[in-house]
Amino acid sequence: MQLAIENSIIHQFYSHDDQIGLRLAPEPLSDDEQLHELLEELTTVYTSKPAKGYASFLTEADEAEEVSDFPVLLKQWQAQALEFVELSQQAAKLLLEQLQNYQMLEAGFLLVTRYQHLSTDYLLVAFLPVKVGVTINPNLAVDRSSQLDISKVQLAARIDLTEWQTDPESQRYISFIKGRAGRKVSDFFLDFLGCTERLDAKSQTKRLVDAVTEFGKQAELPPEQRQSLNAVAYEYCDQQWKQGEDVKVKDLSEHFSQAQPTERSFEEFTQALTQEDKPALDESFPTDRSTLRKLVKFQGQGGGVSVAFDHTQLGERVEYDAETDKLTIHGTPPNLRDQLRRYFGIDS
Fold first, then answer.
1. Backbone angles phi, psi at 6, to 5 degrees
2. What's this model's pTM, rounded to 2 decimal places?
3. I need a surface site. Which of 80, 115, 158, 229 has the fewest CB within 10 A?
4. How far apart are alpha carbons 285 and 201 in whole angstroms?
5. Containing H/E element for 246?
């Protein structure tokens, strides 16, 4: 990944005597090989996070009681009324306030970076956690050390400065990591940035999965052809997700037409959904990877049982009787089979 770094700086948050403190860096980081390695690793981790939210800055229409000054500082910086270092320092102070308000004693580092990638201008704001481990010092003795734990980053947001400037009415020029516990982890981070979630990628992806399923049914395609369409949809959507690009209904419709021509295209089908007052699909939208898997995999859990299998196995190794609600699996995975045989005392 080729990143053109414009400015980058790191500020430190530390805890002491049940208080959170802040140490501000007086100048930007040097644009050296180590910085590029850090940012490339961070952007790779950020991009690979399966669940993201999409937001924009709060406006008067949101009628929020308290709004962070971060958007104001950003506008001042864009207007060259504020230097990058001062922008980052003021941002760090705003984050400190949120950490204190939420009574969080999280030690780590705030990274603020402006960079360009594929002609798009970004501002990445990330809270980098640290982990403590052991190392061997120059005297060949075991010593404790701390280092950045990039893989565990959960608080990060990327502002598409290009889109914000060219389309300020956009609802999604800010993307952020959504934790496994929903927005609870990222609530205070969004408050710090002065933005709110506008687009739920998971809901949009669920609508897509439902639309693809219904499209195959209404086209009266046999099961194997419906499975083929699901596979085509998954392959296209997954590739878009890996590249950080939106899924476009028009493009997906063309993929369907090439793989399995039907009287009515998928694009026409989704437009008809809108006319029928059913949940509509946007023309383009980011996807949630975990939800995408429903296109090619059945899975569920409950009552102490967890089951998952590919769509292609239904009617082959897996049979389902809807009347008795009975699922029959012919042949078990080797590791499961070994566990069962050992449990029952059967020689392998």
1. -90, -50
2. 0.79
3. 80
4. 7
5. none
| Alpha-carbon span 48 to 177, nearest angstrom | 10
User: What's 182's DSSP letter?
Assistant: B
The Cα 187–Cα 55 span in angstroms is 12
**Nearest CA among 114, 56, 58 for reference residue 83:** 114
3-state secondary structure of 58: coil
Query: What are the tens digits of pLDDT across the range 26-83?
Result: 999 999 999 999 999 999 999 888 778 899 999 888 877 788 999 999 999 999 999 9
**C-alpha to C-alpha distance for 346 and 348, rounded to whole angstroms:** 6
The residue type of 314 is: L
Decide: 260 and 229 in contact? Cβ < 8 Å: yes
Alpha helices, DSSP H, located in 66-222: 70-78, 84-101, 161-166, 187-193, 201-218
Q: What is the mean pLDDT of the chain?
A: 89
| 289, 238 Cβ separation under 8 angstroms | yes
Residue 86 neighbours by CB under 8 Å, 6+ apart: none
DSSP state of 109: E
Calpha distance 259→250 (Å, rounded): 14
Beta pairing, strands 297-302 & 305-310: antiparallel
Q: SS3 of 131, please? A: strand
Under a CB-based contact definition with an 8 Å cutoff, are residues 230 and 311 in contact?
Answer: yes
10 Å CB burial of residue 259 (0-12, 13-18, 19+) is: middle
Contact predicate 176/55, CB 8 Å: yes
pLDDT digits (tens, 9 = 90+) for 250-300: 999 999 999 888 889 999 998 887 766 666 788 888 888 889 999 999 998
Q: Which two tokens stand for residue 181?
A: 């516990």
E-state strands within the chain? 4-16, 19-23, 52-57, 108-117, 120-136, 142-148, 155-160, 174-177, 195-199, 247-248, 284-285, 297-302, 305-310, 318-321, 326-329
